[in-house]
Predict the structure.
Amino acid sequence: MSYRSTQNEVGLGAMKHRNQGKLLSMVKFREIIRLYELGYNQTQIATSCVVARSTVQDYIRRAQAKHLSYEQLQGLTDSEAQAMLGKCQSRQPKYDEINFEPIHTELQSKGITLALLWQEGIDHQEWSVSYGQFCRRYNQWKGRHNLSMRQVHKAGENYRAS
């Protein structure tokens, strides 16, 4: 690896972090969907559009959930497309309050993942946070609640032989 390529990678990394958490332009979003429909993989798309692979994954998942193709996106205005994808800047409070108790209960079922529950919440407009933010908030909630089953054993009360 040459010095020049290392400098380019550092520059791209810094650019990625500077835009972290900001709304992706609809031009880039349309380009992500176009490249995906052409058969490029998520890593190639992320490199081409200079975004994180998780961002590519998020936008592809949102478009698939709404059955949106590149051609359909071309017919929509930016605000219409953002509203359909749950990515519009709303005038709601910045911090969506999410009740994680039913989510935690549903996660106990086989085949249920945080990604499925997040997408369901987006579809029902219960929240408008990104998948990464949803996972972080869930893990913070889980950490604040003592969800383990602590068992207190008194000496000599129970005997277990191996």
